[in-house]
Amino acid sequence: MKQILVNLLSNAVKFTPEGGSIRLEVNGDAEHGVVDFSVQDTGIGMAPEDMKHLFEPFVQLDGSLNRAQEGTGLGLSLVYRLTEMHSGSVSVESVVGQGSCFTVSLPWQSTSLDKSSLPDPSQLKTVPEPESALVESCHPSGVILLAEDQEATIQILFDYLTTLGYQVLIARDGVEAVELSQAKHPELILMDIQMPVKSGLEAIKEIRADTDTATIPIIALTALAMSGDRERCLEAGANDYLSKPVNMKKLTAAMAALLN
Length: 260
Fold this sequence. Notes:
Elements: H1 2-14, E1 22-29, E2 34-41, H2 48-51, H3 64-67, H4 75-85, E3 89-95, E4 99-107, H5 133-136, E5 143-147, H6 151-163, E6 167-171, H7 174-184, E7 188-192, H8 200-209, E8 218-222, H9 229-236, E9 240-243, H10 248-259
Parallel strand pairs: 5-6, 5-7, 7-8, 8-9
Antiparallel strand pairs: 1-2, 2-4, 3-4
């Protein structure tokens, strides 16, 4: 949720000129089991034809304010993917020259507590929460090697993994993947199969042949998803296999199973 709001607010700041305003509003609907997070700005706005491709990687609007800004164009794409992972939806309303309103809707269940079942406050002891409690729930020391040659996929996975607290190394071909695995010994490798110079399958075999890297967990990623792909990846030495576009929930589960 933090990454979703950071991206939406950053986007609003980026496209709202000096003197404009930005507002974050949260509304819970217990009856329908939905909570809405809305980010509204008084920025440059968008035409209807622009909104059709808004959540695609590298899509940015054409306009003088936008041309003055630098960025990957992947912020809203990541918002869409993260929201989808949490079984939610994203909608947008916008008028050129007046501003935009992005709304993320997520499932929500209100919990009603029976006050009679609560303990007497006088019987409770206050224990200070360690400052590191939130950090420990992530993976501040976990190093992931992402072997991928498509920049859009790199940015989406990099943003997602760093949000979870991982440190991410990038290899853009099979040769770099082998070299980085030997030099850095990551906790886990995400290996794209279709890469230049040396394929992912070749890189996996080479990593497995080296006694220093042979036991590093590897998840193979492929966009082709053809019959027999999974078997070929596992035979080469991968521990698991996921097809693209990568489902973040499945990726998280696969990583947790291998790292734990």
